[in-house]
Amino acid sequence: MLNSIKTFSFLFGYLPVAAVKLKSFQKKKPHLTIEEYDALIHTEPSKWASGIMKRTKSEVSVTGLELLPEGPVLIVSNHEGNFDIPVILSSIPKPFGFISKKEVKKLPVIPIYMEDMNCVFIDRTDRRSALKSISDTAEKLKEGHSILIFPEGTRSKGNGLGDFKAGFIRIASDAGVPILPLAIQGTADIMEKNDNKIKPAKVSLQILEPIAPETFKSMPSKEAIQFVKEKIELAFKNTDNQQK
């Protein structure tokens, strides 16, 4: 219970500090390149996410940092729990935005930050919004920003990989950028498996070999989806074998 109070207190308590920092960052924007501004904006979400993870008292192991490529990439990760984004934000030094449900826009400060991070908002109940999010995300990538997407569309809560929706392949193909697969395990143990109470957990984040556009563009869509999904599944199996 104490972990939950500390975590949620920090989650919202840090927002006034973030708001002040954002205003100072935006003043610098006209004088910075896209890469420089993305890196500057990333500093605060990364601090915020690190503070959240510290308060959960979870142990996070990260492998594959040396595989992070230069330039924009579509980061494709499985989606286990609500703490996936804090883990990824606090663990990966590469700036990125992500696709988020539109309800987040009702929160204070956070959506303003997300817009400057180049996040894309989607109304899952509206097919037109979903289709527009594909083109909007591809455009962000073409502009030079990296984006994170969870192709399962919803949290697995630690119950294995769900089906991958096809949109991410179209996005990466349209933008002509590599796909960077991530395999994340253990975030559901922080909250989802505890009746939404926060407890310490062991979390593993594996950064996998980037997949070049010419690799997945040469495949039929269904084959490309399966190809990426199998990369993540294999990473899970390797981790399970190492733990035995």
Describe this structure in words.
It is a single chain. This protein is an alpha/beta fold. It has a single domain, classed as Glycerol-3-phosphate (1)-acyltransferase, CATH 3.40.1130. 48% of the residues lie in helices and 14% in strands. Strands 1-7-6-2-5-3-4 form a seven-stranded mixed β-sheet, with helices on both faces. Strand 3, helix 5 and strand 4 form a beta-alpha-beta unit. Helix 3 crosses helix 4 and helix 6 packs parallel to helix 7.
Q: Topology, please?
A:
Elements: H1 2-13, H2 15-28, H3 34-56, E1 59-63, E2 74-77, H4 84-91, E3 97-101, H5 110-116, E4 120-122, H6 127-142, E5 147-149, H7 167-175, E6 179-185, E7 202-207, H8 213-217, H9 221-243
Parallel strand pairs: 1-7, 2-5, 2-6, 3-4, 3-5
Antiparallel strand pairs: 6-7
Helix pairs in contact: 1-3, 2-3, 3-4, 6-7
